[in-house]
Amino acid sequence: MMDVAVIGVGQTRYGMFPEKSLKELFHEAALAALADVDKGLDPRDVDEAFVGTLSTGGAQLGNFAPMMMEACGMVGAGARHIENACASSGFALRDAVSAIASGRAKVAVAAGIEKMSDLPRERNRLWLGISGDVEWERLAGTNFAGIYAMMARRHMHEFGTKKEHITMAAVKNRNNAVANPKAQFRAPLTLEQGMAAPNLASPLKFSDACGITDGASMAILCRAEMARDFTDQPVLVIGSGAGSDYVAIHDRPSMTMLKGAFEAGKEAYTTAGITSDDIDFAEVHDCFAIAELLAYEDLGFCDRGKSGPYIESGATLRDGARPVNNSGGLIAKGHPIGSTGTGQVYEVVNQLRGRADTQERQLSGARYGLTHNVGGSGAAVAVHIFKAVE
Amino acid sequence: MMDVAVIGVGQTRYGMFPEKSLKELFHEAALAALADVDKGLDPRDVDEAFVGTLSTGGAQLGNFAPMMMEACGMVGAGARHIENACASSGFALRDAVSAIASGRAKVAVAAGIEKMSDLPRERNRLWLGISGDVEWERLAGTNFAGIYAMMARRHMHEFGTKKEHITMAAVKNRNNAVANPKAQFRAPLTLEQGMAAPNLASPLKFSDACGITDGASMAILCRAEMARDFTDQPVLVIGSGAGSDYVAIHDRPSMTMLKGAFEAGKEAYTTAGITSDDIDFAEVHDCFAIAELLAYEDLGFCDRGKSGPYIESGATLRDGARPVNNSGGLIAKGHPIGSTGTGQVYEVVNQLRGRADTQERQLSGARYGLTHNVGGSGAAVAVHIFKAVE
Predict the structure, then answer these.
(1) Which residue in A22, A63, A116 has the most chain B C-beta atoms within 10 A of its own C-beta, making it the best mutation to test that interface?
(2) A-chain residues within 8 Å CB-CB of B244?
(3) How far apart are CA B319 and CA B201, in angstroms?
(4) Domains and CATH numbers, chain A
(5) Across all residues in chain B, what is the average pLDDT?
(6) Rounded to 5 degrees, what are φ and ψ at B180?
């Protein structure tokens, strides 16, 4: 199995860009990733491409990946579109890593994009729902806010977690985003404000949820043995894990654990040869604030049921022992569905290279970073672990 | 790079099954594939899954792959949906092969499905069009029939190919399907009938085109070193190639060559360590009859421009030197978009194992079989080469 390195990352700003086309957004992320390959890369040297999206912007339904790749001058590379709802580009990354690890590709691209601003807001929320169990959950009238609200309520019931604990994730992430120029929501939030926000799906408040976002991101990878030809600061992908689960929450034995995330984490740690204790910082999938707490437990950052006290301890703050969602996470950096997975890679790789966009956000001394990308309410999860090369 | 083997294949009948749901179709193909693993396989031992579809049946837009896998008892395997228009499951196969070759997965599934009978026929043709270049080709009013008609007209102009040569592919494939119980269209066709059929897009006639089809298919793969634990008749995947091209035909230097197919074939031959001369039989992507002639040339079965005389020689008939589309191909076996790639694998693997569904269709002495799966009008192409284990 060949070792794999990231040699360049790029991302658009996250936000609402109704004036930009799908191709423009993708092109912007691709140009940024190519420019980030310090010693240069000819786009025609990309062997294989994996492009994550859920909705294809409603435009190019088929051959989506070749169309995006052609838009940024990478014609010819075998390109395919990967869909796994909100984990689409987490899986694109996993498959790009496989393509290189198998010896087939020397240079591969993992990317993601979503254009969510083409529809009225209520219709956006509708098509997002079509990533849940369409036959049961949707017909029963619930949506992702409702499903995560049930998880939150159950976590409070089983473990005594307080609503304040859940709100703390939203507060932390919104405050983290203030210093992130690529983030969508950069207004700070206090615990008092978060607790007093209007209900979305009780106990979740509006400020506990991500929004509707446009954005694109790309990571360029190569065989680790070649990485120094492209940059003096390659970042190794040392662990990769994936798991799936029943799509509908009523089919799962637990409502407070994402088994797919637990399995993906386990595989990622095993392949990396490290444990959760080694993880210095992480970007996790906080589509709703409760999801971040579940991630702490599924990834082994704290014991099962203890995510409330764990976040209260301040461990995951920017200056804590293990910062989580220093970027602002999905809640505040933004969640352009297909882009989120490789957007997390953008953040983690920049941190490990000491290239955070603002000095305020730069973590010091971090060796191991983790990304955790969840599809739907846990139907598919991809976890990756990255390591700076000393 | 680990060697990879196919240990079981399954496919539904191809046809119009408005009464069957997506899950039923997928389940039927999965059960058949599992039953085809002679010594048995526990579905929970599948490590990873790659599911090809274009439209997701219009139903489960997101997390499509976990939903299909759960429907057949394979919950937990990291599952993602691969889209590449008509080449969706050809790329699913390629990525399943990578997952195993990289050492990550021991057992992986490549599958495909399409449910096209949910919409009125005219709307089906419309959404198929959204796999072409939406901004240019579609707005100019053309569709795939029109694009392939231009390729046919240009081939006739450049190389003196006769309309009869093109029709011969349709005639051969429709006659081949008569003996295939899994095929959609099993009525024979004569050259006279084909030449007299109504125009679809001149010079292509209605009988030169595939139809609207429902169907699903699955191939189960594992590390070659483990294959004998599952079957005494494993089939090795010795070559894999992929290529992409500009999505719109007006952006390509040639209208009579699919560069993506040429590149995919070249990579497949190189990785297999053989040449086109070694290929004993093939299933190629004849969405329109002209596409089969282009495939002969792109894959090196004959010289550039010589596909007309080549098909006229009878070389690709069932009893010819190199049978092509012995199954009936897309034109007569059927073309349920996402299923076509792994449906080709179903045919080739059964032939190499001496398990053709009817004695009449069984080829004798074949060692190397090839599949050629094209997305759109050539935007993405996957080619694979299979070898029987002696």
Answers:
(1) A63
(2) 49, 65-66, 69-70, 75-79
(3) 31
(4) 4-119+211-388 (3.40.47.10)
(5) 95
(6) -105, 105
